[in-house]
Specification:
This protein is an alpha+beta fold. Helices cover 28% and strands 18% of the residues. It contains nine helices and six strands.
Length: 249
C-alpha cells in the first residue's frame, strides 16, 4: 500500500471539528449519546486511514477488559481506507484470531460469520495528533508494521498471559509479570493499535494503568467523535436503536 492507494488524513481546516454539537462527544467513562449514523450514507464517506473503531462489547473477554479498566470500551481497531479497491478495512487484534484484517462493514453485517452484527456498541473516532502530524511516509511505516503482524494467532499460553495482565490492571506490575511478559506479537487490541501509531510517530502513554487500554483512545482531549456506528445494546443502555445496515463494504 502506498500513499496513492491509502487515503491520508485531511487537513483540519478542511474537516472542521464537531465540538459545537453537545451530543457529538466521546469519553473514556461513557458511551456517546448521539444517534447511530447510517454507515453507507453518513459515516463511510468521512472515514480516513488512521481513524479508530471503539467497541463496547458484551462477550466474556470484553467484560473482563471493561471491568478491569472501569470503562465502557473493550476493544479498539485501526481503520484503513483503500480507495484503489474501494474498501474500508479494519486492522485489529482479537483474542480468538490474533492479528487480522476485515472489512469494517462486517461489524454491522456479519461479525460472527453467521449473519449477526457485533454484540455491543460501536463508535468511530479520529485522533487529533495523528490527523495533524502524519503524512504519507508516516502512514506507510504504520501500515508496514500493521500488516507484518497478520496471521499471528494466539495459543492458550498467550491468552492466559494477556488475561493476567488485564486482571492486574489495578495492581502494581510484579516482577513475575515483567519476567513472563508475552511475546511481541501477543498484543491485546489496544497495544496493537498503539504500536501501529508509534510507527507513525504518535506515541500514546497509558493513562490509568501500566499498559495502553481501549479507554486510552477515548479521551476527548485527544480524539474527535466522528459518529456512533451502532448503539449500545439494552444491557448497557436504556434505549437501543438498530443500526442502518450498509449496502457497501
Amino acid at each position: 500500500m502506498n500513499g496513492s492507494q491509502v487515503q491520508q488524513p485531511a487537513p483540519l481546516v478542511e474537516r472542521g471539528w464537531r465540538t459545537h454539537d453537545p451530543c457529538m462527544t466521546i469519553s473514556s467513562q461513557s458511551f456517546p449519546s448521539s444517534r447511530p449514523l447510517s454507515y453507507q450514507d453518513e459515516l463511510r464517506p468521512l472515514l480516513q486511514t488512521g481513524d479508530l473503531l471503539l467497541c463496547s462489547g458484551t462477550g466474556l473477554f470484553s467484560e473482563l477488559i471493561r471491568q478491569a479498566t472501569d470503562s465502557p470500551w473493550s476493544h479498539v481497531g485501526l481503520i484503513v481506507r483503500v480507495d484503489a479497491i474501494d474498501r474500508v478495512m479494519l486492522m485489529e487484534s482479537v483474542e480468538t484470531h490474533g492479528v487480522r484484517t476485515l472489512p469494517l462493514s462486517r461489524y454491522l453485517l456479519d461479525y460472527d460469520q453467521e449473519g449477526n452484527p457485533y454484540p455491543g456498541g460501536l463508535a468511530v473516532v479520529r485522533h487529533r495528533r495523528f490527523a495533524q502530524q502524519c503524512g504519507a511516509t508516516h502512514i506507510q511505516a504504520m501500515l508496514q508494521f500493521a500488516v507484518d503482524q497478520f496471521g499471528s494467532a494466539y495459543d492458550r499460553k498467550d491468552l492466559v498471559r494477556i488475561a493476567a495482565r488485564v486482571l492486574s490492571a489495578h495492581l502494581k506490575p510484579s516482577a513475575l509479570l515483567a519476567k513472563d511478559s508475552p511475546p511481541q506479537r501477543a498484543f491485546i487490541c489496544s497495544e496493537y493499535v498503539a504500536q501501529c501509531y508509534a510507527r507513525a510517530g504518535v506515541v500514546l502513554e497509558p493513562q490509568a494503568h501500566h499498559y495502553v487500554t481501549p479507554a486510552d483512545f477515548a479521551h476527548p482531549s485527544d480524539v474527535e467523535l466522528l459518529g456512533v456506528m451502532k448503539a449500545q445494546q439494552q444491557a448497557f443502555s436504556h434505549s437501543y436503536n438498530a443500526p442502518v445496515l450498509p449496502t457497501h463494504l
